[in-house]
Amino acid sequence: MIKSLFDIKRPNFQVLIILISITIIGVMGIPFGDPRFVIYAVFLELIYASLAILIAKGYRKPIYVCIFLAIIIIVGNSFVNAHINRIMTFSRPLNTLVLILGGYILQGLLIYTSVMALRITNRSKSMQQ
């Protein structure tokens, strides 16, 4: 039997879908963001794509990185005055929607799915012993 290049297990699949969604929303939002931060935005999207590849290959440690990164993104977005102003005034609607969807909703889902994937994996490992 041929072994697959990717070893996506059920709990990790949900994390993978969220990471792909974050990457797609982020890439779509880069042109609408501040041109001074394009390099950082591209770098961040490459990090999410790399995490998605590592999780698709079956690695477990990148899930911890996902939790940490999502918390940093949510906290960081909450302290940037331009982001707070944009959300409160809805001055640039498309940019604001990308910020809310990619910077808060999907990040929260990433934290939730990552924690659940780790719990399911730990539970199944403890039952096997």
Report on the architecture of this protein:
The chain has 129 residues and is mostly helical. It has one domain (10-16, 25-121). The protein has 5 helices and no strands. Helix 1 runs antiparallel to helix 2 (38-56), helix 1 runs antiparallel to helix 5 (93-128) and helix 3 (61-79) packs antiparallel against helix 5 (93-128). It starts with 9 loop residues before the first helix and ends with a helix.
Proportion of β residues?
A: under 5%
Largest sheet: none
What is the distance, rounded to the nearest whole angstrom, between the alpha carbons of the first and last residues? 27 Å
- Count of domain modules: 1
Number of helical runs?
A: 5
Helix content: over 70%
Q: What is the global morphology? A: elongated
Descriptive tags:
mainly alpha; 80% helix
How would you summarize what this structure contains?
With 129 residues, this protein is mostly helical.
Topology:
Blueprint: H1 10-29, H2 38-56, H3 61-79, H4 81-89, H5 93-128
Helix pairs in contact: 1-2, 1-5, 2-3, 3-5
